[in-house]
Write a structure and sequence with these properties.
Blueprint (H helix, E strand, L loop, with lengths): L1 H30 L4 E6 L4 E4 L1 H7 L3 H4 L4 H4 L1 E3 L12 H8 L3 E3 L3 E3 L5 E13 L2 E11 L1 H35 L9 H31 L8 E4 H18 L3 E6 L3 E3 L16 E4 L1 H18 L4 E8 L3 E8 L22 H5 L6 H11 L3 E7 L3 E9 L3 H14 L12
Parallel strand pairs: 9-12
Antiparallel strand pairs: 1-2, 1-7, 3-5, 4-6, 5-6, 6-7, 8-11, 9-10, 12-13, 13-15, 14-15
Helix pairs in contact: 6-7, 7-11, 8-9, 9-11
């Protein structure tokens, strides 16, 4: 009996020693990692901060521990405005329950020094509940400055080269005009190929300019309240001709089972469905959906292309699905990078700049959205877009504010003297 009690006490001491040793190993590991690491609990209170994080933020570990993480990690945008609400990753992690990556935030240190940081925030889950989070971040100011220099060069070069290319395209168009010039069939064939290549080159310069603007925050955006159901239905009807031209079936899908055939004029038929309000620039969103749809049509030889819409109380989700060849799994993580193209026989024969998906990602991120792809090789691909959903009440408020901000200037009928 006595021996049993002694054995249990020894086992307890062993467990305590093991836990202490494990904690020491954990501290040694995180203290020697070059990236900043901050561990927070469910109340966003700092529990652990490593030396690298202390150096970056300007807070000593004994000062930061026990404080709210947003007092330590003061994040602002490039206009100097504090990231709050849905713009702050430390708030979003407890709403979205998924890993969040922020690559453009600026950290305001204790001494008011500004550092551009790359931040990854991962939730700590206990079943379906988030019990805390781990923030890993590093100073990327130098990389961002170098990227800005490259973007400035690309923007300047593209802008300067657009003018002569446009002139060449114009002269080639005149040469191909029967009312202006007379050319034989062989010369026409050469000129048509030259004209097509010039148009491709002009599109490349335009995409380069757009990508440069997207990277440095100069991409113009005029968000407004949009009901995404009617928006996508109209866009589907506009896009269906390119699918039909290739012999593909097209459909507009609402929810999980309600299918609206976009290849036919629905006339006065109405479908009862929820109103999915979002706050985005309609022209920009149209650019993204059109790009995804055009890619789907280009790479799909037979079958159908679908534009779909669904959502819940927080998120509106739209997607573009095809029955094409699919995308290899090793290519999926790189698909939204600049100039990245899947290397196969289809992409080598179909032209492209490799910038469309990069620009699409930047546009969706303007509205705190997310874009990604899921694909089965040989079965097709689906590109998903998630956008924050706004309530009908909030939509009405935004529309009212927009109307109030529009100033109507009187027309002066008196000619200036």
């Amino acid at each position: 009996m006595f021996g049993f009690k002694k054995s249990a006490a020894d086992a307890g001491k062993t467990r305590a020693t093991d836990l202490q040793d494990e904690r020491k190993r954990f501290e040694v590991i995180i203290n020697n990692i070059a990236d900043g690491i901050i561990l927070i609990d469910k109340d966003q209170v700092v529990q652990t901060i490593n030396p690298a994080a202390a150096t970056l933020t300007g807070w000593y570990a004994n000062e930061a521990t026990g404080l709210n993480v947003k007092n330590i990690m003061k994040l602002i945008n490039n206009k100097g405005e504090a990231l709050t609400g849905t713009n702050n990753p430390f708030d979003n992690i407890f709403r979205e329950h998924v890993t969040i990556r922020e690559n453009s935030a600026i950290l305001l240190t204790k001494n008011n020094k500004q550092l551009t940081v790359g931040l990854t925030l991962s939730p700590l889950m206990d079943g379906a509940d988030v019990t805390g989070a781990v923030a890993v971040f590093r100073d990327v100011s130098r990389e961002r400055a170098e990227e800005q220099q490259r973007a400035d060069f690309i923007s300047t070069a593209s802008h300067e080269m657009r003018t002569p290319v446009a002139a060449i395209e114009g002269y080639l168009a005149l040469a191909l005009n029967d009312k202006v010039a007379t050319i034989d069939s062989r010369a026409r064939d050469y000129l048509e190929k030259a004209h097509a290549s010039t148009q491709h080159l002009g599109q490349l310069f335009q995409d380069l300019l757009t990508s440069a603007k997207a990277e440095d925050g100069r991409l113009t955006s005029h968000p407004a309240v949009i009901e995404l159901g009617s928006f996508l239905e109209q866009l589907s009807n506009d896009l269906r001709f390119s699918a039909e031209k290739k012999g593909l079936f097209m459909e507009f899908v609402v929810g999980s089972s309600n299918v609206i055939n976009a290849s036919k004029n629905t006339g006065g038929e109405r479908t009862v469905r929820p109103l999915y309000y979002v706050y985005v620039d309609g022209d920009r969103l149209r650019e993204v959906i059109t790009n995804l749809f055009d890619n789907a049509v280009k790479y799909t030889e037979e079958g159908k292309v679908s534009i779909g819409l669904t959502g819940n109380d927080q998120v509106v989700q739209c997607y573009v699905r095809d029955t094409g060849p699919g995308i290899p799994s090793e290519d999926v993580p790189h698909l939204f990078q600049k100039f990245y193209r899947v290397d196969n026989s289809a992409t080598r024969t179909i032209g492209g700049t490799g910038l469309g998906l990069f620009i699409a990602r930047k546009i969706i991120e303007l509205y705190n959205g997310r874009i990604w792809v899921e694909s089965d090789l040989g079965k097709g691909s689906t590109f998903y877009i998630n956008l924050p959903r706004i309530s009908p009440q909030r939509a009405a408020e935004l529309q009212k504010t927009s109307q109030q901000n529009q100033e109507v200037k009187p027309i002066n009928s008196v000619a200036p003297s």
